[in-house]
Amino acid sequence: MPDKHHIVHPFPATYDADSEILILGSFPSVKSREMMYFYGHPQNRFWKVVAALYDEPVPETVDERRRFLLKNHIAVWDVIGECDIIGSADSTIENAVPNDLTGILETAHIRKIFVNGRKAEEMFIRYQERLTGRKAVCLPSTSPANAAWSLERLAQAWSVIKEKGMPEVDKR
Question: What gap in Å lies between CA 34 and CA 162, rounded to an integer?
């Protein structure tokens, strides 16, 4: 069995003052860490899904991806800022330290928080919900491990991120 390594999240969140929705993953995969940007594994369907929702070409480079997110008022970050992990396996995460979402939540007008998959949801509830005082909506994972969901089915489920007039995030 490979060794567990302590990894600190190697790249910053993407957001600006115009960001309206926040999409949180769990922790970047090995490929994302190599690329130094979110959803870097070529089989992860995140970029295909969001591009389809906004009827735009799939962004390929880090700069294209960053511009795409900001143009569409999307902030992206991860729940976990550092942890012990084997490879990319969320199931091996231990000693997690949550990312500080304060900067995003104070700078941007985030109206809704979404999490990409059940593991991100579990970690958000465990590490972020009390800290932020907000709830998140869980969307089906775009990971290649979630093979039961077709690209079309994912895009349909993820279409909620575009809904206007959504209620404010529950701030309790």
Answer: 30
* Inter-CA distances, 8 with 27, 69, 99, 155, 162, Å: 10, 23, 10, 31, 31
Q: Is there a domain that residue 92 lies in?
A: yes
pLDDT digits (tens, 9 = 90+) for 126-148: 989 998 999 999 999 999 888 89
Q: What is the CATH number of the domain that holds 20?
A: 3.40.470.10
Instruction: Judge whether 90 lies within some domain.
Output: yes
| Bridging pattern class, strands 80-85 and 137-139 | unpaired
Q: How far apart, in Å, are the Cα atoms of 96 and each of 5, 25, 32?
A: 12, 14, 18
Residues 6+ apart with CB under 8 A from 144: 41, 43, 44, 45
152 belongs to a structural domain: yes
| pLDDT tens column, 66-120 | 999 999 999 999 999 999 998 888 888 899 999 999 999 999 999 999 999 999 9
Q: What residues form DSSP beta bridges with 98?
A: 80
Task: Give the active site residues.
Answer: 44
Asked whether residue 21 is assigned to any structural domain, the reply reads: yes
Q: Are 73 and 56 in contact (CB under 8 A)?
A: no
Q: Encode 12-34: b = buried (16+ Cβ within 10 Å), e = exposed.
A: ebbbeeebbbbbbbbbbbeebbe
